[in-house]
Design brief:
By secondary structure, this protein is α+β, with helices and mostly antiparallel strands. The protein is about 20% helix and about 25% strand. The protein has three helices and eleven strands. The strands form two sheets. It has a seven-stranded antiparallel β-sheet with strand order 1-9-6-11-4-3-2, with helices on one face. A four-stranded antiparallel β-sheet has the order 5-10-7-8, with no helix packed on it. It binds N-oxalylglycine and manganese (II) ion.
């Protein structure tokens, strides 16, 4: 008997070609870069929201978390705004991200538990030096519990001379193996602990969403992950 697809059934997105591609790439190489990946309506919605936002809505991005949080303009100079589902576009983004989470959990048994994401604005001259989004540790104490990083871009007509590439590095190499153009609709997904990366100085206003899937390490009354 054939059952109709249902969100309550495990394989609802079971043959989604985009999600499958991401899973296959992660399994074989630990990263995935897909142009025009975002569903067009979702990309347009988010882009419309970004166009309506003013520079003042973005807060200077820091390094570290909670008590360890510091501003360091030598490390990064982007402005960020956390996505909390306050608009239809944000709700749709969170829903789409959640579908990807469930898909990857089923396909790759990653045990991804939660998702956090923010808009990022890199004004001309802004950059983010080479870093990893999470540090190895087992159990993942004193780290951010980030397992998988996702970045999506909202920059129509981006040209090579606009700079702002996302450079991806192998852990042991000093030269990047890939420079990603932050073109509209491009999606980048990579293992947070394993892929050092860098945002090269942008020469034009550059907009992205960066997000992280995390595992849950709550122990006793210590709620984890913290913001
Ligand atoms: C980050 C990050 C990349 C980008 O916020 O950690 O690496 O291209 N962002 O916005
Ligand atoms: Mn990063």
């Amino acid at each position: 008997m054939q059952l109709a697809p249902s969100p309550l059934r495990g394989d609802f997105d079971g043959d989604d070609p985009l999600f499958s591609q991401i899973a296959d790439d992660l399994r074989s190489q630990g990263w995935s870069v897909i142009p025009n990946a975002l569903p067009p309506v979702l990309a347009e919605q988010l882009h419309a929201q970004i166009l309506g936002m003013s520079e003042e809505q973005f807060s200077p991005a820091g390094v570290g978390r909670s008590a360890d949080f510091t501003l360091n303009p030598f490390v990064r100079r982007d402005g960020i705004l956390w996505i909390e589902g306050k608009t239809e576009a944000e709700k749709d983004w969170l829903q789409w991200s959640n579908r990807l989470r469930l898909f990857l959990n089923r396909r790759l048994f990653l045990g991804l538990f939660s998702f956090e994401s923010h808009f990022a604005h890199y004004p001309p001259g802004a950059f983010y030096r080479k870093h990893v989004d999470a540090f190895r540790g087992n159990p993942r104490q004193d780290t951010t519990n980030r397992v998988l990083s996702v970045v999506a871009y909202f920059n129509p007509g981006w040209l090579p001379e606009d700079g702002g590439e996302l450079a991806l590095y192998q852990e042991t190499e000093t030269e990047p193996f890939l420079n990603v153009t932050p073109a509209f609709g491009t999606l980048v997904v990579f293992l947070s602990e394993e892929v050092p990366h860098e945002v090269r100085p942008a020469h034009r206003h550059r907009y992205s969403i960066a997000g992280w899937y995390r595992v849950n390490n709550s122990v006793g009354d210590h709620i984890d992950p913290p913001r």
